[in-house]
Write a structure and sequence with these properties.
The chain is of the alpha/beta class. The protein contains nine helices and twelve strands. It has one domain: Spore Coat Polysaccharide Biosynthesis Protein SpsA, Chain A, CATH 3.90.550. Strand 3, helix 1 and strand 4 form a beta-alpha-beta unit.
Length: 305
């Protein structure tokens, strides 16, 4: 079942590092802001879907902000609720082939200049998060050919307190390809033309298909990196349940299947990745040194405190 509401409206070398940027001033003329499509994938999570939509509706963004919801066939509770929503919304509620199949379905339904994937229960960190991200785009360059990311705050289910903050402050493509850096996809915005040219998500890659797509994007153009928190991520997602060993293995698979190379040799790339994994394990097992309190020397007779 589907219903729509119309809206109104460089290659990087292996060592390329992208520094974070602060968004410049921008005008409030909506015609000068790129259109953004937020794609939300949901299944049997009506409460999480409501939180995500409320977060989107609270955004103060001068340009067009479209919402595409791809529900996996939860039933009448979700489809009836979506049918009663107003605004720039397109949605579908039907069985699909998994999260990345659903995301690709959302891409096909989207018509924004940039795509932002915010799954059910994920929310924007502030009411100006979209504006902050779009203001940081490189001027004079087609926004549909750019991509970038900020940082994400992780929250445990039922808690408003932040568990941790994720997202590199600086992007080094070699570390991303080898699995040492990962980018929270909820804080990522992707140019629609870039995604169309690179072939969308590859479900056969598995859980790190989002990282594989970003690796391919980075091979084409350097990302815009923001130091800002852009979203709050619900930690019930599958990727947050991975062990570190599973994460490293999944990132190696993502790199291999996406065709990204660091050294030109897949075997050598794997060896480098395993070496970085070993360094991480060593640092985790090394006992942390506890700083001892500084005790002042005893005062000599006649000294005054």
């Amino acid at each position: 079942m589907r219903q729509s509401y119309p809206g109104t409206g460089m290659l990087c070398d292996h060592g390329a590092m992208t520094d974070p940027v602060r968004p410049p001033a921008a005008t409030d003329d909506g015609t000068q802001w790129p259109s953004v499509t937020v794609v939300t994938v949901s299944f049997r999570d009506p409460e999480g879907l409501r939180r995500t939509r409320s977060s989107l509706l609270a955004q103060h963004y001068p340009g067009r902000l479209q919402h595409v919801v791809v529900d996996g066939g939860t039933g009448a509770e979700v489809s009836d609720w979506l049918a009663n929503q107003t605004g720039d919304l397109s949605w579908v509620s039907e069985p699909d082939g998994g999260i990345y199949h659903a995301m690709n379905k959302g891409i096909a339904m989207a018509d924004g200049d940039l795509l932002w994937f915010m799954n059910s229960a994920d929310t924007f960190h502030a009411d100006d998060s979209v504006r902050t991200a779009m203001a940081a785009l490189r001027p004079g360059t087609d926004p549909r050919e750019q991509w970038g990311f900020g940082r994400a705050e992780w929250h445990r289910p039922g808690s408003r307190e932040a568990d941790s903050v994720h997202g590199p402050r600086r992007y080094l493509r070699v570390l991303h390809a080898l699995g040492r850096q990962t980018i929270p996809h909820q804080a990522v915005f992707l140019g629609a033309s870039l995604v169309a040219r690179l072939g969308r998500y590859e479900p056969e890659v598995g859980i790190t298909a989002d990282q594989a797509l970003m690796m391919r994007c980075a091979r084409e153009v350097a990302p815009v990196v923001l130091p800002d928190l852009l979203c709050d991520y619900d930690m019930t997602g599958v990727s947050s349940q991975q062990t570190r060993a599973e994460h490293w293995a999944a990132m190696r698979r993502a790199r291999r299947l996406s065709g990204v190379r660091v050294t030109g040799s897949r075997r050598l790339d794997d060896l480098l990745s395993r070496a970085l994994q070993g360094v991480e394990r060593f640092r985790e097992r090394r006992p942390r040194q506890v700083a001892q309190p500084v005790v002042p020397p005893p005062m000599a007779q006649g000294d005054r405190p």
